[in-house]
Write a structure and sequence with these properties.
Number of helices: 12
CATH topology of the largest domain: OB fold (Dihydrolipoamide Acetyltransferase, E2P)
Low-confidence stretches: 27-35, 50-67, 98-129, 155-176, 326-331
Radius of gyration: 43 Å
Strand order of the largest sheet: 4-6-7-9-8
Distance between the termini: 114 Å
Largest sheet: 5 strands, mixed, barrel
Length: 391
């Protein structure tokens, strides 16, 4: 039987109303079972990758709390997920070692034996006990064999050699092996104290020997030839001759220099002293600057005092210990040192310089010297203090 059109209209109306009600129905408090796959949980952000050109962060020396990894994971949205290990912690010691190796690798790490190298952060570090170094300057090639044979260079014992072992003429600066063994002695051997020289020399004579070689460290101070000092002073004081006293000292020194037969060193020294007193009285404020200018001109000309001793010409200086209080009472002026002309040419442009030198210990060679001994230099090195590491 065919359905009535009115009944068809009512059935369609009820169907539409049922669908709308279903749309307006509130969601259930629990999820419905569905055949569709649940969405994937959010993924953690990709951890940063450290490259060679990127500096990893420096972690503090305080340890990370035990709950911190979990807190960081939650913040990243991956609670409970395994996290990659943090980069290696760089400590203050590692940073210090790295800076030290960068500055001194060219001279230290490359030459140090493996057992003296520390490896930290991939850098080779050579431990250093101090900052003092020795700059080799010169040695007498004619005395090289005697230096290497000398027991005093190995055991601090007296050296018993004949009179012929040292020739009066200075040798050349470089020998067949470029003085490598001499350099090693200057750098590595323990120096003899200056105040021990007299005792060691006396023991040498008591054994019937007459030669003693010693490695000595101290401050070498050079003096100037009095005549050269007078000439340099006259050149500097010329603009100040308006002062009467200075003009008189200037004229007297000029007349002495023009005298026939030359000017004796003692007389030249007296004229230099008179000029200094007049300069100081004429201008106390300018005197230090004038003295500095005179000294600089004499150093540049290498107008150092020279003596004809040991059968040759030597530059004469004084050697004092770095600690001046270590000098004995009779040696308050220092030990006279005689440097051959060839060795003196290698000295820096300084009037006073710390040195390590190998010298033959001999009795005093000049009646005007107060010290009973004299040192004839056969090898010379300059002590260089590079300062503390942190500077």
């Amino acid at each position: 039987m065919a359905e009535d059109p009115l009944d068809q209209l009512m059935s369609a109306t009820l169907a539409i109303e049922g669908d709308e009600a279903k749309l307006r129905r509130p969601a259930l408090p629990f999820a419905e079972i569905s055949s569709q796959q649940a969405p994937a949980p959010p993924t953690a952000p990709e951890p940063p990758q450290w490259h060679a050109s990127t500096t990893p962060p420096v972690y503090a020396s305080v340890g990370m709390p035990s709950a911190m990894p979990e807190m960081l994971a939650r913040y990243a949205g991956v609670s409970g997920a395994a996290q990659p290990a943090p980069p290696p912690r760089i400590t203050d010691q590692a940073l210090a070692n790295g800076a030290t190796a960068s500055a001194y690798a060219f001279s230290n790490a490359a030459t140090a034996p493996p057992e003296q190298q520390l490896r930290d952060g991939g850098l080779a570090v050579t431990p250093q006990l101090g900052r003092e170094r020795v700059d080799y300057l010169w040695h007498d090639a004619c005395a090289e064999d005697a230096i290497l044979r000398a027991p005093s260079m190995k055991q601090d014992a007296a050296n018993d050699l004949g009179d012929e072992w040292l020739a009066p003429t200075a040798g050349v600066a470089n020998s067949s092996n470029d003085g490598a063994e001499i350099r090693a002695i200057l750098l590595e051997r323990q120096p003899t104290s200056i105040d021990e020289l007299a005792r060691l020399y006396e023991e040498t004579l008591d054994r019937g020997a007459d030669r003693l070689l010693c490695l000595v460290r101290g401050e070498l101070t050079l003096s100037f030839e009095p005549i050269d000092a007078v000439r340099a002073t006259l050149a500097v004081v010329t603009p100040f001759l308006a002062d009467t006293r200075l003009k008189e000292a200037y004229d007297a020194a000029q007349e002495a220099l023009r005298a026939t037969g030359g000017l004796a060193p003692a007389i030249a020294a007296s004229h230099k002293e008179r000029l200094d007193e007049a300069m100081r009285a004429a201008s106390r404020n300018s005197y230090p600057a004038m003295e500095s200018l005179i000294e600089r001109s004499l150093i540049e000309e290498r107008a150092f005092s020279r003596r004809k001793v040991f059968g040759g010409s030597f530059v004469r200086g004084l050697l004092q210990p770095s600690n001046r209080s270590a000098l004995p009472a009779h040696a308050s002026g220092g030990v006279p040192v005689y440097v051959p002309d060839a060795g003196a040419e290698s000295l820096p442009l300084m009037r006073s310089v710390p040195v390590r030198l190998i010298a033959e210990v001999r009795p005093t060679q000049d009646a005007v010297e107060s010290h009973p001994l004299a040192l004839r230099v056969v090898a010379l090195g300059r002590v260089v203090d590079l300062g503390p590491r942190g500077r």
